[in-house]
Structures are given as C-alpha cells and as structure tokens.
Predict the 3D structure of the following.
Amino acid sequence: MTDIVIPIKNLVGAKSRLSDILNPAQRSDLVMAMLEDVLGRVTELDEGRVWVVSSDDHALDMARLFGAIPLREIRSIGYNEAIITWLRALPDDGNIAVIPGDIPMAREAELVSLVSSELSCVPHIRIAPAHDFEGTNGLFLSSKRLIRPAFGPGSFARHFKLARAVNIEPEILHTPQMAQDVDTADDLLSLVEKNPEGATGEFLRGLKIAPDQTDSEDVA
C-alpha cells in the first residue's frame, strides 16, 4: 500500500500568479474546486491512505468529506515543509506519494501508475513531470528516507538529480493529463480550452472565461 498526500497551501493568497485574471475569492474557489476533483479520483484508487496537509480549515473539511485524513499544519510556512510535517506522522518504511491539488485533469490510470505499491526490495523513485518539465506533478518514493522532497520551480530536474545522487535511476512517467497543472494565466486558459469535468469545469464555466482572453482582463 502507498500513503498519499495532497498538500494545500492556505487559501489566503492562493495561486497569486493568477492575480491578473482572478480575484482572491475566485482563486480560493478554484483551489477548492480542483482539490475536490483530485480528492474524488485519488480516494477511489484503493491504493492506500490519502492525507491532506494544510493550515486551512476549508481544505481540511474537504478532506473529511472524501474520507481522507486531515493533518493540520501549525503554521503555513511552505509546500515542502507541509510534506515534511506529513512524513513525520508516518512510519520509517513504506511507499509514499505526493500529489499536488491542482491537477484536475489527472486520470485514474495515470494516478495508479504513480502510486502503485512497489513490493521490490530495490529502492524506487517515480517522477511525473509537469507539462513544461519544470515542476513535479507527482512523486513516488518506496521509502520516505530515500530523498527529501524538493517541490517548487525547477523541481523536476531537482528530484531527478536527487535520485541519481543516491544511485537510483528514477522512473519518469508519461502522464499528459496529470501534467496539466494550473499556476499561470496561460495554464488556466489552456484548462478552459480542455473543458474539464467535475467541480473545476463547473467553476470555470461559471466564470465565462473565453479561451482567447488575455491575462490583462479580470473576470470578476
């Protein structure tokens, strides 16, 4: 089995790089809509326990709604710090996976390819890159002791190098739907064009964002 975590930053100031196209309330609603879709898929995998780590009450309530384990951060001091908080709650051995909350297009088969339990005694690392091969949209470790998660800009290359540094050739996953994250206005407009299902799609259709909308317009 694999323990899976979805770290969620505090909704205050969430997705600040979308501030030219969405106001703070809309950005908060977008984060919650994407989390709802991701949780809905991940909790149906039956691959292990699902955790949500956050300092935000709304995110933790959403975790409970889907039967995930809510783990509160005492202070919201960073994405990687949230993951470390989670790792401290786990036993030393066992498969773990980190999945971002902003990949609402991820499909079941892609998620399974990331989180499926590794039963071999050989240490194993899987990395699912973001669409631009800059970020990491999924990380699997056969033990939390292998490497320290290092999410953020440039994290795909960083995780790859960390794996190589401990003599592990990481498995790079081709997951085109899972690769679609939402960090920038271009990401958001790309998502609009794909017309996703679920809570995220409903939220975007409510905004009535045109696919050719420039990031200089506010959709409030």
User: Anything to note?
Assistant: Residues 214-220 have pLDDT under 50 and may be disordered. The first strand starts at residue 2 and ends at 7. The beta strands are 2-7, 50-54, 69-72, 95-98, 125-129, 136-141, 171-172.
